[in-house]
Write a structure and sequence with these properties.
The complex is a heterodimer of chains A (197) and B (257). With 197 residues, chain A is an alpha/beta fold. Chain A has a single domain, classed as Rossmann fold, CATH 3.40.50.880. In chain A, 25% of the residues lie in helices and 32% in strands. In chain A, helix 1 links the parallel strand 1 and strand 2. With 257 residues, chain B is of the alpha/beta class. Helix content of chain B is 38%, strand content 27%. Chain B is globular and about 45 Å long. Classes of the chains: A alpha/beta (197), B alpha/beta (257). At the A-B interface, helix 1, strand 8, strand 9, strand 11 and helix 6 of A face helix 2 and helix 3 of B.
């Protein structure tokens, strides 16, 4: 069973449907035990860094993520759900994140922001997530990102400058883009992740 | 690695059906919105926009249902506009499955609504829809309401600058002179708005020939919205993408069915 962590006001139903295309049961939950023990946990996120972090802490999501990593249970962060896994974010002031990876989420240097739309990536060597969709485009909506590689496998994209589009690091993975909004390529990537469960 | 230009079919929806008129009159039924959304998704649309032109509360409720059904079947971003007055309206649409909302009249009446929505949901959900036409204002472009029939008494460029400062994440620029004419996007208007804004710009109104699409991109648009040319099969999305690719623009899935 896959759990999508519900810790805010966003719509999670379409994310649920996207993950269901993998053939697995998918629940939307803010329950500590359900999220902790699911075969796979998805941490979505829209809005500002600090507001998401606050919502995450309210459902003890920070603790859930740390415990899942310690127990090697697959966890996937998406968009701001990826950003809050870093040590800090600079959106509307300096805010601490969960701190899984030691890096800062900074504003992108680009003439037009947000970075909005379909972009290609340079998949990291040995990536499982991008297996078969290395040359596809994915849907991004963000103005902030991490600019240096972290974890075992870093996948980069470029908008004004290089930034981190995805991380695979043992049981935890994350994408700056929205696989659930990235058409067939996104569904393929979701299936790749589900196969690691 | 490069960001693709976006091709966005726009579905005008009233009482659960897609319609599209010329200059907002002479409406013709163009089909079922969920089916059309799925078809456009298969053809390689990069986003979809629903414009709810329902006049009644029942029509709006039907639109929420259309949004729900579409978001469960089509895994590309969906923007919904039309009749949004409050933060709660936005909340309902996002919960139904919209990824972004576009606001227009309500923001003109009360610009603070922009900041209220951006503060609650983030700028990335908020598209400012600007229905503009050529006029004797300071910039030569003014904002209109009521489908282009009335002047809002606001200069279009001044409005764009103000809305950007309040926190819109994107601009949908609709030329009311060109809307539905298939005589080409208003290139001068796109150039002028691009010069005063630092958020993504969607050009809308007037798409006719393939050259019209590349002309709007040359003028600085990041995305291209069109309705009738797609609904009535004058161009198919893959043909537009192949053409733009040939012009040197980065596109996604030019090869889609």
């Amino acid at each position: 069973m896959i759990a999508i962590l519900d810790y805010g006001s966003g719509n999670l139903r379409s994310a649920q449907r996207a993950f269901e295309t993998s053939g697995r049961e998918v629940v939307i939950t803010s329950d500590y035990e359900v999220a902790l023990n699911a075969d796979g946990l998805v941490v979505p996120g829209v809005g500002a860094f600090a507001a998401c972090m606050e919502g995450l802490i309210t459902v003890r999501g920070d603790q859930i993520v740390r415990e899942r990593i310690a127990a090697a249970r697959p966890t996937l962060g998406i968009c701001v759900g990826m950003q809050i896994l870093f040590s800090q974010g600079l959106e509307h002031g300096v805010h601490p994140g969960v701190g899984i990876w030691d890096a800062t989420v900074e504003k992108l240097e680009a003439p037009i922001l947000p970075h909005m739309g379909w972009n290609t990536v340079k998949a990291g060597a040995g990536s499982q997530l991008f297996n078969g969709v290395e040359d596809e485009s994915f849907y991004f909506v963000h103005s902030y990102a991490v600019k240096n590689p972290v974890g075992t496998i870093s996948t980069l994209s470029n908008y004004g400058e290089d930034f981190l589009a995805a991380v695979e690091d043992g049981a935890i993975a994350a994408t700056q883009f929205h696989p659930e909004k990235s058409g067939d390529a996104g569904l393929h990537l979701i299936k790749n992740w589900v196969q690691t469960l | 690695m490069s960001l693709s230009v976006r091709i966005i079919p726009c579905l005008d929806v009233t009482d659960g059906r897609v319609v599209k008129g010329v200059n907002f009159t002479d409406l013709r039924d163009a089909g079922d919105p969920v089916e059309m959304a799925a078809l456009y998704g298969r053809e390689g649309a990069d986003e979809l926009t629903f414009l709810d032109i329902s006049a009644s509360a029942a029509g709006r409720e039907t639109t929420l249902d259309v949004v729900r059904k579409t978001a469960e079947q089509v895994f590309i971003p969906l923007t919904v506009g039309g009749g949004i007055r409050t933060v709660e309206d936005v909340n309902q649409l996002l919960r139904a499955g919209a990824d972004k909302v576009s606001i227009n009249t309500a923001a003109l009446a009360r610009p603070e609504l922009i900041a209220e929505i951006a503060d609650r949901f983030g700028s990335q959900v908020l598209v400012l829809s600007v229905d503009a036409r050529r006029a004797r204002t300071e910039s030569g472009f003014e904002v209109t309401t009521h489908g282009g029939r009335q002047s809002a008494g606001v200069d279009a460029l001044a409005w764009v600058e103000k809305a950007c400062a309040l926190g819109v994440g994107e601009i949908l620029l609709n030329s009311m002179d060109a809307d539905g004419t298939r005589a080409g996007y208003d290139i001068g208007m796109i150039t002028a708005v691009r010069a005063v804004s630092r958020v993504p710009l969607i050009a809308s109104g007037g798409a006719g020939t393939l050259e019209d699409f590349s002309a709007a991109l040359d003028a600085g648009a990041d995305a291209l919205l069109a309705a009738s040319v797609f609904h009535f099969g004058i161009h198919r999305i893959p043909d537009v993408k192949k053409y733009l690719q040939g012009q040197g623009y980065s596109v996604r899935n030019a090869q889609a069915s």
